[in-house]
Every structure is written in structure tokens, then in C-alpha cells.
Amino acid sequence: MKNLVLIFGAPGVGKTATCEELKNLLPKNILLEGDWLWSPTPFFMAETEREMFYKNLVYVLDNFLSHPELENIIHSWVVPEKEVLQKILLQLSLENVNLHIFALTCSEQEHMKRIENDVNPRRRATHVGGSIKRLEQYNDVNHKKIDTTGLTAKEVAGVISKEVMACC
After folding, report:
1. What is the pTM (predicted TM-score) of this model?
2. Using CA atoms, how far apart are residues 113 and 31, in angstroms rounded to an integer?
């Protein structure tokens, strides 16, 4: 069985850093960052681009899931709404796949500190205002929530990897 590990959260909660650490813990894995599928400068995403992003995401994830050597597919993305996640999951070939969905959160104070210290100037400039609103959106998700406040990315990755490996 393969594992599809989806890691969601507001910009700045530690998704990318956690996934980079997770790559070192899970065997035979690949990481797909959501930003790799759509990162124009300046950033924009209208409905046409959104639909293209979803199609590309499903295509790439399905290709990774069908690859015979990969055991763990890690995907990190903001995920705008629960309905979007369901739409994508319905299009994926998930037979013989263990699905693991994690929503990363942190305190508002920790979140603002991380955004202010972000090495990505585009994200720093464009996400400070909307980040808190996005952070709140993950408070009532039905997936495993991990509060990353006070934790390193390596610690968060350890929690995730233990859960993923426990199911196999």
C-alpha cells in the first residue's frame, strides 16, 4: 500500500519546512509542493487558473501514485476550502492508497512571527493581511490537526511520520 500524505495549513504555519523534514523520515517518497504548480509573478489566480491548477494537481498526484517505486507521496498546499479538497480527492485514483490528511495550525502570535521572518519576500508582502483569516479556516477541519506552536519542523515531521508508518 502506498501512502498519500496531504499537509495543509495557512501560509506560514510550517508546511514546507515540515515536508522537507518529512522527506528524511519516510522511505521511497516524493514531495509535491502546491506552489510548484502555480507560482506566477506577480501572483494571481482567477477561476481559469484555479481549474488548471486542480487538473495539474490531480494529474501529477495520480502519476506519482502509479509509480511502482514510490511508497510515500507527500503534498503540501494551502487548500482554499473543504469542497476543493473533496473535489480533488474524488478525481484521484486512491485504490490501494492509505490517505493521511493533516492540517497544521499555530497560535496567532506564532503565525505572525513566522510570516514576518519568512524568507520568501513575496509571501511576506502578500500574506500578512490574509494569513490570520486563513489560519482560522483550519480550526474546524475534520482531519488530524497539529498545533505547531513551539515545535520545530523536525518535531512536527516526526509526529506525522509516526502516524503514517503506524498504519502500514
Report:
1. 0.87
2. 26
